[in-house]
């Protein structure tokens, strides 16, 4: 069953507050609206008059730079929306960037617009800290994965995912319906999926353990086959023992695999 849902521009306008961050032509933060101040870690990061890339984590910098570069190279066309996870607090943001210019069409800077879609895709993990201790920031577990289709965000139910495949800084989400592009990294997704059902079996692959149908040995390496997917997924040597335990397979079974 295809349980994907679309998040349309009209739905965003009607349902969400919008965050706005103004950058000058050197990509320094010069202003933001009240909603952006509430969502972003302004007090901690002190972003004003700083280059916008300087306070992003390393994993996010290429994405932010890509958005800004796309707006610079082709200011008329609308760059694709970008989803990102920011650490403080644990939020999932949908971001768009537009180039701005003055009356003579000389560039003046950028406007970064974002929607906080955390509540659409995530639930908070139950805190495990003792009641006497200060509450730690809650991590957000994704029950839907935001994927990009044209100028729309398509939400894919996590339960429908067969596997995830790293595509540079981004991820390919494979379901029975096909292959979709997610501009969160595999590392972003690894810590946000239900660990009871998802496992990173290789640096480039996460699999839904419920969809594993076969384990084989090819040239001394383990590979998996998943329901409805012809691709053989490699298993790294360091993941093999844990994977077999998760699947209820005794280690002695390895020698019987052809």
Description:
This protein has 258 residues and is of the alpha+beta class. It has two domains: 17-116, Beta-Lactamase (2-Layer Sandwich), CATH 3.30.450; 141-256, OB fold (Dihydrolipoamide Acetyltransferase, E2P) (Beta Barrel), CATH 2.40.50. It contains seven helices and 18 strands. It has helices spanning 9-15, 34-39, 42-45, 61-73, 118-121, 186-190, 237-246; strands spanning 5-7, 19-24, 29-32, 82-86, 91-101, 107-116, 122-124, 140-142, 144-149, 152-157, 161-167, 170-175, 178-182, 198-202, 205-208, 212-218, 221-226, 229-234. The strands form five sheets. The chain has a five-stranded antiparallel β-sheet. The longest helix is centred in the N-terminal third of the chain and has 13 residues, at 61-73. Residues 127-137 have low confidence and may be disordered.
Question: Can you give me a brief rundown of this structure?
Answer:
Helix content is 19%, strand content 40%. Mean pLDDT is 82; it is low at 127-137.
């Amino acid at each position: 069953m295809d349980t994907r849902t679309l998040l349309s521009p009209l739905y965003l306008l009607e349902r969400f507050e919008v965050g706005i961050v103004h950058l000058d032509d050197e990509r320094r933060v010069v202003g933001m609206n009240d909603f952006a101040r509430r969502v972003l870690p302004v007090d901690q990061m002190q972003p004003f008059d700083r280059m916008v890339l300087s306070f992003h984590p390393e994993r996010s910098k290429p994405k932010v730079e890509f958005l800004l570069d796309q707006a610079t190279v082709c200011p008329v066309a609308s760059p694709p929306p970008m989803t990102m996870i920011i650490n403080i607090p644990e939020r999932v943001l949908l971001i768009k960037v537009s180039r701005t210019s003055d009356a003579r069409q000389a560039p003046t800077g950028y406007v970064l617009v974002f929607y906080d879609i955390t509540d659409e895709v995530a639930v908070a993990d139950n805190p495990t800290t003792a009641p006497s201790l200060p509450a730690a920031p809650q991590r957000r577990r994704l029950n839907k994965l935001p994927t990009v289709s044209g100028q729309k965000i398509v939400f894919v139910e996590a339960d429908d995912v067969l596997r995830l495949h790293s595509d540079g800084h981004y991820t390919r989400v494979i379901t029975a319906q096909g292959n979709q592009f997610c501009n969160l990294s595999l590392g972003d997704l690894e810590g946000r999926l239900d660990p009871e059902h998802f496992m990173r079996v290789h640096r480039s692959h996460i699999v839904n353990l419920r969809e594993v149908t076969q384990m084989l040995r090819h040239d001394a390496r383990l590979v998996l086959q998943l329901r409805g997917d012809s691709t053989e997924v490699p298993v790294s040597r360091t993941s093999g023992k844990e994977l077999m335990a998760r699947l209820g397979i005794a280690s002695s079974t390895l020698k019987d695999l052809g």
